[in-house]
Amino acid sequence: MINTIINSPDAPEPVGAYPHARRVGDLLFLSGIGPRRVGSTEIPGVTLGADGSVAQYDIAVQTRSVFENVTAVLKSAGLGLEHLADVTVFLTNMKADFSTYNTIYAEYLSTYKPCRTTVEILSLPTPIGIELKCIAVFPDAKNLQ
């Protein structure tokens, strides 16, 4: 069985001791992916106050950046968005952000229609409003119809 760690030079560095993704057999498990920029602590769409707390944020900018990062990790594994089978989305403000995020999600994934779960959480490890956790399937997977 294949069991390989995948890190993408085109995605932001993980904030902990984990890889961007791990291939196990025909599945690729992505770690939580946020909107940070590669090589930077910059978070697109976030303005921090003097105390480091979020002064304001733009969920549309963050959501697009998250999809760019997910795409980068998938590309490093030789895959694309069409290979996603399951997506778990974490939002820190469901009431305010769901509609915008859902519209942008559809721009990227309405053609492919992976399974999806969206949950609201109190916070994420960095001052972001969205994070995606994904599972993709390699196209050479056997017994898939």
CATH top level assignment: Alpha Beta
Along the chain, the helix and strand elements come as EEEEEHEHEE
Q: Kindly give the count of domains.
A: 1
Largest sheet: 6 strands, mixed
- Uncertain stretches of 5 or more adjacent residues: none
Strand order of the largest sheet: 1-2-3-8-6-7
The outline comes out as globular
* Gyration radius, rounded: 15 Å
Helical residues, percent:
10-25%
* Protein structure class: alpha+beta
Oligomer: single chain
Strand content: 25-35%
CATH fold node name: 60s Ribosomal Protein L30, Chain: A
CATH architecture: 2-Layer Sandwich
Distance between the termini: 21 Å
Task: Calculate the mean pLDDT score and round it.
Answer: 93
Number of helices: 2
What does it look like?
With 145 residues, this protein is an alpha+beta fold. The chain has a single domain (3-137), classed as 2-Layer Sandwich (60s Ribosomal Protein L30, Chain: A), CATH 3.30.1330.40. The protein has 2 helices and 8 strands. The strands form 2 sheets. Strands 1-2-3-8-6-7 form a 6-stranded mixed beta sheet. Strands 4-5 form a two-stranded antiparallel ribbon. β4 (46-48) and β5 form a beta hairpin. The protein is globular and about 50 Å long. The two termini are 21 Å apart. The model has no long low-confidence stretch (mean pLDDT 93).
Draw up the topology in text.
Blueprint: E1 3-6, E2 21-24, E3 27-30, E4 46-48, E5 54-57, H1 59-76, E6 84-91, H2 94-109, E7 115-120, E8 130-137
Parallel strand pairs: 6-7
Antiparallel strand pairs: 1-2, 2-3, 3-8, 4-5, 6-8
Helix pairs in contact: 1-2
